Predict the structure.
Amino acid sequence: MKKYFFLNSLPRSSNTLLGTIINQNPQVSITANTILTDVIYQLHLLKNTEIYQNFPDEKSYNNIIKNVFNNYYKDYQSKFIITRGPWGTPFNLKSLKSIIKKPKFIILYRPVLECLASFIRIERPLDIQLRCHQLMDSNGIIGKNLWSIKNTIESKEDYIIVNYLDLVNNPTNQINKIYKFLKIDTFKHKFENFNQFTANEIEYDDDVLTAELHKIKTDKIEMDEIKIEDYLPSNIIKEYSDLDI
């Protein structure tokens, strides 16, 4: 029987690095950013349709929902699945807790402006301000995940926080911290000369994105130093300067 845990994280905070390292352990898999939150949401919308309301077979519907994790991750060989996504937003959290009563969350965190600057540095958009607002929107990839993290904390869920700096400066300590929190036996990981991220024998295809957002250095772990003023306009820095947890 698989056990499921949840990674609430800001993008550009070393999600790919964390997954690459932990996925060396055959007993544990950190997933890529999952579509499963959207699958559950779309299933929920079916309840609003005429065909469902005409014949509201609640038991059969619940069979789908209750088995959604086991069906989706059926081909994963690991016993422990850490699924990454904005699981802490109000709808996602409510839906999740209807399936798993006491979920555990790992919050991987980096200051918001550093994450934003990292996106701008790698994507090099023509309109920096527009792109920043898109990323920070409530449905944008940074804004939605920040909302998810804050709601997880405010809802007093069972969570730990792993900070970006702590992860890159002392990966052994932080990964053992995760294992202890999840009650998983520790594993001897490689922190040098490791591979790019894979999960369920699948790699990222960043050709569909605006930039190579998931390619990491594999020879060693080192901090990605960013001077935010080099990438973000002053008004953007001012607007989003007080959003950190």
Observations:
- DSSP finds twelve helices and seven strands in the chain.
- The CA atoms of residues 193 and 219 lie 4 Å apart.
- The domain at 3-110+157-204+211-221 is CATH 3.40.50 (Rossmann fold).
- The radius of gyration is 19 Å.
